[in-house]
Amino acid sequence: MYSCFHLVMLSLLWSLVEVHSQTFPYVSFMSQISLANNSYVDISLVGRPEDGGDSVQCHTDLGTCCGPVDGSHRGDWYFPDGTILGFSGNGDIYEQRVSQRVDLRRRNNANSPTGIYRCDIPTNAVHHATDISVRDTVYVGLYPASGGTVSISGGVTFDSDQLTLTCISTGGPATTVTWTRDSTTVTQGTQTVLNDPVTAQYTHTLTVAGRLGGLYRCTVSNNKPSVVSKTFTVRVASAPTNLVFEVQSDGTSVLLTWTPPDPLGDTTGYRISFTGGGSSGSVDVSGGSTNSYTLTGLIRGETYDISIVGTSDHISSESVELSVTLVHGPYLTVEVVMMGVSSISLSWSVAGDTVVDSEVVWRAISGPGDRDSSGSITSTSYTIPDLQKLSVFSVTVTVRTSSSGDFSESVIAFTVPACGSSGSSSSVAVAALGGVLGVVIVTAIAVQVMVIVFFMKKLQRAEEYTATLAARLKRGPPESLKTTSNVAYSVVRGETDDAYETVMS
Questions:
Q1: What is the C-alpha separation between 465 and 452, in angstroms, rounded?
Q2: What is the pTM of this model?
Q3: How far apart are CA 247 and CA 324, in angstroms?
Q4: What is the DSSP secondary structure assignment for residue 26, as one 8-state letter?
Q5: Which residues are bridge partners to 220 per DSSP?
Q6: With pLDDT > 70 as the criterion, what percentage of the chain qualifies?
Q7: Which of 140, 181, 128, 187 is nearest to 44 (CA)?
Q8: Average pLDDT estimate for 162-167
Q9: Which domains occur in the chain, in start order?
Q10: Do residues 248 and 256 make contact, with C-beta atoms less than 8 angstroms apart?
């Protein structure tokens, strides 16, 4: 009568799943027995030793038996709550000793506690003792026909290029486990492991090579007439693209911009990480459509490795990376304030930092003069004195700031000729001339030509240069000077002939 059933049971014995060898050195299989009244439809035998071991299990139409292979000592059955069953008692579920085995039996139409029943096979003949030495254990699960409750928890991990999704089911035989990604069934990389036969806890894992964004589901169902199933959803973000940077004018901030993934999918934000300047950090930016962020408080002169990943409720995307080096030079600004007959005045500043000390070094490019230095000064301005008139100088300002070492910037400046006789009016004219030339040196070609004439007084072509200068000046002031200093321009234009007389004398 049961030959077909026994063949099924034998085939199920080979459908084994891995169990942690140090905790439960057993493999498991599930069996289904249809009883006459259908009050219990499952007996789950989950304790057969891998090597055949010391225990033997058998099935009848009413229950399960267990005993030692060598026939030495029979086992004892325990309720799911840990209390021992009685011999042929009045309970709905009881144990009955037959030869060298003990059977787990159920009375007809009985309604007994559902859950995991266990049979301990001792190493000696002492029964019903709390301190027996157990050499083998058999576990059997009884569940109602209406189905037991299956609860699911889970988590997600990512190691190197491997994504592992895990869901844990507890309560009832997990006979059907299905993994899907975006509604497509996934079978490769799946595994089910029995954690605890007493609580019927199973760990179901799905291993995926690389990050694949999408909607993952773990569905666990038992084989009751009323199927019980749960789902577990995992979201994986997509990575941004086109990451670029722009160093801001203060030299300590970097504007990052990127292109959000299209479509956004499960990307809900971004995590930006950076390392450099002896420190590291990260910041979370919310919003999948966000496309920029400014990192502040960086150190000039340092190199930073920056990465960005898309984030979701579960798994971040792969990272996009770049390196940024914050240079010193562009953030030191030197300005020529005034160019006089025998002096040049300068001022300087460093954006976003404090100047600790400075040094001004100058060297004559044309005309007489030698290299000289101001020495160390604490101010951010300096007037170079006692210069030879009508000479061009290369001036280098070197500073040391509170957050970094020395760096410098060079400018070209020149001394101007004395216009007219000595006296206050001449001083005003010279001051006005110097102020205008300080601006015009960058923007007004006509005044630059006049300066060249000043420095070519010993050349026979000086007259030709002066005539060219006068012609250009008569065309009117450059647009940049019309709103800057019309009065000063008039002084320059009106005294062109005087300047020529001075040069040629």
A1: 8
A2: 0.43
A3: 8
A4: E
A5: 177, 230
A6: 50
A7: 140
A8: 84
A9: 3-144 (no CATH), 151-235 (2.60.40.10), 241-325 (2.60.40.10), 329-414 (2.60.40.10), 424-504 (no CATH)
A10: no
